[in-house]
Every structure is written in C-alpha cells, then in structure tokens.
Amino acid sequence: MTKRQITQLSYEITGFAIKVHRALGAGLLESVYEKCLIHELVKNGYEVKQQINVPIIYDEMTIDADLKIDLLVNDCIIIELKAIEQILPIHEAQLLTYMKILKKPQGLLINFFTDNITKSLKPFVNEYFRTLPD
C-alpha cells in the first residue's frame, strides 16, 4: 500500500467510528463499539481481524504474553478502541508498541467516551509508514 492509500483508509475508518458514535453515543462498553465498528467496516468491504494475539519475541524466544490488538484493518491499520474517561500515555505507548511488533505502518486510538470522536481520536504512524511509497 502507499501512504496515500493508508491515509485514505484511516479517514474512512474515522468516518465509520463517527457514524457508530452518533448512533450510540458515549457510555457503552468497548465491546459494543467494537462489534458495531466491525459491522460497518465489513459491510463496506474491508478485511477486519479482531482480537489478534501479539506474540513477544525476545532473544529468539517467543513469549505468549496474552496481548491482543482490538482490530486490524486491511492488514495495515491497527485500531485500539477505548471507552474511558481519559486516554493516558500508556494507551498511546501500547498502540505504538503493537505497531512496532507487528510491523504495521499506522494505528488509530479511538475513545468512544467522548462528545466528539474527531477531537479524541489519535492517529499514529511509525518508520514503516515513512518507508512506503507516496
């Protein structure tokens, strides 16, 4: 994929998150938003994997640390969903680490406990994004 395609995909995912948030509002469980966002993405032709195990490889040893990413869209954008009062630096670090471990170029941290998704959504890119063609 190109940078432009990933950026467009990120924009479309954001639109679906806004649609889900407008329909449901804030205050529900993260799992509800996850199911609704998956429904929107799949309905619109995107490949979505959910609750994927993230293996930790350390010194040629694979560790099952029970880490899971919420969603992976079109094998390139990791989505971490939250339904909490405040996003903390640990949530950002978690997503950036998942992106690094899985070698994915973009991540979206989406918090549904908000009055405005676009104000609370945080996109992240890493070195894998920078190496993609424009």
UniProtKB/TrEMBL annotation:
One Pfam family linked to the record: PDDEXK_3
Annotated InterPro entries: GxxExxY (IPR026350), PDDEXK-like_dom_sf (IPR011604)
Protein name as annotated: GxxExxY protein
Organism: Chryseobacterium terrae
